[in-house]
């Protein structure tokens, strides 16, 4: 049987390079920041969305030794951690599923010692399933307090009003070990007034929680994602859930600006990810030639082009057509015409002297030039979170120093 590969494969395929050194440097930077305002706190890595598109399979072994907690959305991803620990004889780390969990998954997570978030009333029905499973240890849960994001969680009023009372009668199978919330706009602003109000509401939620449900002290309180970790010391609590900054990307330009104001300096974050693509062919097109679907580009003069086997299937957004460029030999080369499903065509007239194969950098450094994920996100009219998360799961990912 032939192995079926969805994308281009072999030597002529693009690859993502993941820098282990950049990752370690980012973790050190984030830990240092936190220690500066009285630690020690737990530093946790958010690995949802295929590790923000970087590749969970490749990132998990790199991240595991560096952090204290691992956060996921889906139970299946969280269970990968236990499999890895068993296979490699690693110490067991705290693992928390932030997303929705059905009853069957809850049983599997309890058995694996993975913790979960109680963020809605569906847990009432799960209690019976957990009892039937005759667990050795109760499932460890964190209560999500909705402080103003309007997503999952209970408001302090709902907690005080008895919506979590079912936890009191379920202490044989559910043990409350933590409480969390999530900010709504920390990365969108430099004035954190809404976040401050969310913090006040969280404090109220903690009081209501302790008054209505038996909790295991010290309760692990956590609210800060990257932006709050970087610029809102009051939000750091007992654990920090860092996603985007772990990968060496700033949550936003507002957060970077805030860091300068709040910390008096901008900590260095090093992008973990680079994207490189070898050419499929390099050739001359005569003056007047059209390039790509829709004939949207016409060469004004004889042009040396490189055809690169990468396209919107791989996560190189079609919206970048007519705007994007790539780096070849340290020079910016415009993408000509439309981005296709599996191809782009770039102008390399000034970047090379001949038609030999070349390697283009789509994200990352080449010589003195640097293409940031944020540049691609701007061209694609989105944010860098979406840009990296949409990188195809099929792309080859290699760890580099
Ligand atoms: C995604 C997410 C984070 C991480 O956010 P970043 O901005 O990437 O650091 C933290 N907590 C929750 C609940 C999340 O959904």
Automatic annotation (TrEMBL):
Q: Which reaction does it catalyse?
A: L-alanine = D-alanine
Keyword Isomerase included in the entry's annotation:
yes
PROSITE patterns recorded for this chain? ALANINE_RACEMASE
Describe the task this protein carries out. Catalyzes the interconversion of L-alanine and D-alanine. May also act on other amino acids.
Question: Where, by residue number, is the active site?
Answer: 48, 293
Pathway assignment: Amino-acid biosynthesis; D-alanine biosynthesis; D-alanine from L-alanine: step 1/1
Cofactor field: pyridoxal 5'-phosphate
Domain Alanine racemase C-terminal residue range list: 272-400
> What are its E.C. numbers?
5.1.1.1
Q: Which UniProt keywords apply?
A: Isomerase, Pyridoxal phosphate
**Name under which the protein is recorded:** Alanine racemase
Where in this protein does the record say N6-(pyridoxal phosphate)lysine is found?
Answer: 48
For this chain, the family text in UniProt reads: Belongs to the alanine racemase family.
One Pfam family, please name it: Ala_racemase_N
Residues that bind substrate: 151, 341
Question: Which species is this record about?
Answer: Archangium lansingense
Protein's gene: alr
Q: Which InterPro entries match?
A: Ala_racemase, Ala_racemase/Decarboxylase_C, Ala_racemase_C, Ala_racemase_N, Ala_racemase_pyridoxalP-BS, PLP-binding_barrel
| Any GO MF annotation of the entry | alanine racemase activity
């Amino acid at each position: 049987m032939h192995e079926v590969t969805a994308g281009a494969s072999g030597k002529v395929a693009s690859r993502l390079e993941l820098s282990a050194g950049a990752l370690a440097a980012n973790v050190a930077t984030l830990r240092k920041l936190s220690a500066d305002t009285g630690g020690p706190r737990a530093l946790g890595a958010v690995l949802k969305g295929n590790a923000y598109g970087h590749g969970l399979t490749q990132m998990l072994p790199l991240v595991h030794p560096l952090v204290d907690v691992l956060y996921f959305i889906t139970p299946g991803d969280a269970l990968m951690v236990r499999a890895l620990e068993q296979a490699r004889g690693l110490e067991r780390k705290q693992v928390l599923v932030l997303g929705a969990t059905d009853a069957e998954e809850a049983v599997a997570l309890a058995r694996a010692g993975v913790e979960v978030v109680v963020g809605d009333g569906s847990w009432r029905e799960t209690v019976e399933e957990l009892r039937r499973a005759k667990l050795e240890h109760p499932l460890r849960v964190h209560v999500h307090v909705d402080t103003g994001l309007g997503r999952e969680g209970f408001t302090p009023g709902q907690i005080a009003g008895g919506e979590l009372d079912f936890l009191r009668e379920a202490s044989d199978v559910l043990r409350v070990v933590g409480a969390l919330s999530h900010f709504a706009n920390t990365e969108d602003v430099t004035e954190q007034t809404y976040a401050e109000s969310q913090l006040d509401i969280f404090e109220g939620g903690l009081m209501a929680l302790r008054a209505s449900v038996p909790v295991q002290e010290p309760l692990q309180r956590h609210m800060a994602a990257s932006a709050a970790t970087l610029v809102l010391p009051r939000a750091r609590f007992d654990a920090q859930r860092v996603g985007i900054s772990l990968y060496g990307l700033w949550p936003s330009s507002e957060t970077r600006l805030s860091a300068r104001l709040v910390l008096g300096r901008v900590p260095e974050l090093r992008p973990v990810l680079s994207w490189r693509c070898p050419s499929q062919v390099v050739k001359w097109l005569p003056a007047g030639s059209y390039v790509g679907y829709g004939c949207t580009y016409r060469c004004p003069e004889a042009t040396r082009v490189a055809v690169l086997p990468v396209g919107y299937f791989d996560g190189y957004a079609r919206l970048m057509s007519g705007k994007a460029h790539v780096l070849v030999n340290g020079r910016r080369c415009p993408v000509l015409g439309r981005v296709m499903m599996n191809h782009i065509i770039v102008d390399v007239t000034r970047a090379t002297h001949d038609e030999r194969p070349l390697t283009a950098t789509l994200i990352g450094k080449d010589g003195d030039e640097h293409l940031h994920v944020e540049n691609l996100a701007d061209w694609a009219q989105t944010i860098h979170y979406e840009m990296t998360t949409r990188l195809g799961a099929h792309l080859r990912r290699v760890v580099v120093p």
